[in-house]
Design brief:
The protein folds into 3 domains: 3-57; 69-171, DNA polymerase, domain 1, CATH 1.10.150; 187-358, Orthogonal Bundle (hpI Integrase, Chain A), CATH 1.10.443.10. It is built from 16 helices and 7 strands. It has helices at residues 42-57, 61-69, 72-82, 90-101, 115-127, 139-159, 187-203, 211-220, 225-229, 259-272, 286-300, 309-321, 326-333, 338-344, 349-360, 375-395; strands at 3-8, 13-17, 23-27, 35-39, 236-237, 242-248, 251-256. A hairpin with a 4-residue loop joins β1 (3-8) and β2. The longest helix has 21 residues, at 139-159. The model is unreliable at 1-11 and 397-422 (pLDDT under 50).
Length: 422
């Protein structure tokens, strides 16, 4: 026989002890059908009921119900229209949103999604097949999807009226990132790429004449690809030899143009003769650079070489040129933190051996130590110096002390064979 406990009016819930030795709790929600749940012990049910009552009192249960009905597809669409559209990398992020929206998981409501759902997605994409169905994702690529979803839930909780929404990504473990690169462009690879680009210009009439200039400029002015592609001739200060980058990844900055890069700009100005300063220096798209670069790498069979490795190469050359002066090198690369700057400076074995050889070089004595400095030679040098002073006094105003008071020095002719002793 069940025992009934009357509803507590101040809390708004009731409890009933059933025949199966369990407790059933009912919470009034303002509708004819109260919310019911059964628990094996009274204390657990009481905590749940009081939590539901507090949600009712704060008016948050309605928003929680809406969060259960608001699907991830709808959230991704709204996030893309309101948040992603204002980012510099919106094209790439909108592509990721499209990938996530195509998942069966995205048909679920936001409040119904749990950490285990995204843990399974992470396992599938990183160990089996990625969103394209072929190559598994690298840890760095998965983190881009993770950050997108994590921020989506935070925006929904703070700005979209779902204050009770739980963020399932906040409890998910993150993979260890090991994406540090130390790939350098060798001299042989550089010569092969230049020869291939030149042969394309000679054999193909519609070859892009700007690619070879852009390739060399990216090494001698080690900025990011899109930062250089969007620059105009008006951004160059020829007098100060600097390049203005107003929309860089780290914000507004001015980067110095090193001598080789300045020479490339001068050659381009003579060849292409830009009409307006508003013209882009390199009128190419990022996709055009990507396609030409991949074609050249495929033809030359260059493995594990990315376009961004040219920035590593340029930073390493600039570091060697500036004797690793951190302040000046940071001005060249545009990095905000020292840790990121160190990742882009990759010394090879030749650089290390050159530095060691320079340290171990024997110190050469000054040239005066190698001269047999006799007393006669010293006297002749001093007399020549005094004669020059007399001429200077004679040509100028008359000094207080006459030049006749300056004595001449006679050498000691007793022994000219002995060197001068100090």
């Amino acid at each position: 026989m069940s025992r009934r406990i009357h509803p507590r009016k101040q809390l708004g819930y009731s409890a009933r002890h059933t025949t199966q030795d369990r407790w059933q709790f009912r919470v009034a929600n303002g509708t004819p059908r109260p919310e019911c749940k059964t628990f094996p012990d009274f204390e657990a049910g009481r905590l749940w009921a009081e939590q539901q009552v507090r949600l009712h009192q704060d008016g948050e249960l309605a928003s929680h119900k809406q969060a259960r009905e608001f699907t991830l597809v709808q959230a991704l669409k709204r996030y893309g229209e309101e948040v992603s559209i204002g980012k510099r990398g919106r094209t790439q992020e909108l592509s990721r949103i499209k990938m996530l929206a195509a998942l069966p998981l995205s048909r679920n409501g936001l409040a119904t999604l749990r950490t285990e759902h995204f843990a399974q997605l992470k396992k599938t994409w990183m160990h089996e097949a990625g969103p394209n169905g072929r190559t598994p994702l690298l840890p760095s690529t998965w983190m881009k999807y993770y950050c997108l979803l994590h921020h989506l839930f935070e925006i929904a909780r703070k700005e979209w009226g779902f204050p009770t929404l739980d963020n399932p990504l906040s409890r998910q473990s993150k993979p260890r990132l090991n994406n540090e690169r130390n790939r350098r462009l060798t001299d042989d690879e550089y010569q092969l790429i230049v020869q291939e680009a030149q042969s394309r210009l000679q054999s193909c009439c519609d070859a892009n004449p700007y690619f070879l200039y852009f390739f060399n400029f990216s090494i001698h002015c080690p900025q990011r690809r899109n930062e250089l592609l969007t620059r105009k001739w008006a951004d160059i200060n020829w007098k100060e030899r600097s390049l203005r980058i107003p929309n860089g990844k780290t914000g507004y900055r001015v980067a110095p143009i090193l001598p080789e890069a300045l020479k490339i700009l001068g050659q381009m100005r003579e060849q292409f003769k830009p009409v307006s300063p508003k013209e882009r220096i390199f009128p190419m798209t990022a996709n055009a650079v990507h396609m030409i670069w991949n074609d050249i790498k495929k033809k030359l069979n260059l493995e594990n070489l990315h376009w961004h490795d040219l920035r590593h190469e340029g930073c390493s050359r600039a570091a060697k040129m500036l004797n690793f002066d951190i302040a000046k090198l940071q001005k060249v690369s545009g990095h905000k933190s020292l840790s990121q700057l160190i990742r882009y400076v990759n010394y090879n074995m030749n650089d290390v051996h050159e530095a060691v050889d320079k340290i171990n070089q024997p110190v050469q004595e000054p040239s005066t130590h190698n001269i047999n400095l006799t007393p006669q030679l010293l006297a002749e040098s001093l007399n020549l110096l005094l004669e020059n002073k007399r001429q200077n006094f004679t040509q100028g105003q008359t000094p207080t002390a006459t030049t006749n008071n300056i004595p001449s020095i006679q050498p000691n002719t007793k022994d000219h064979s002995e060197p001068l002793r100090h």
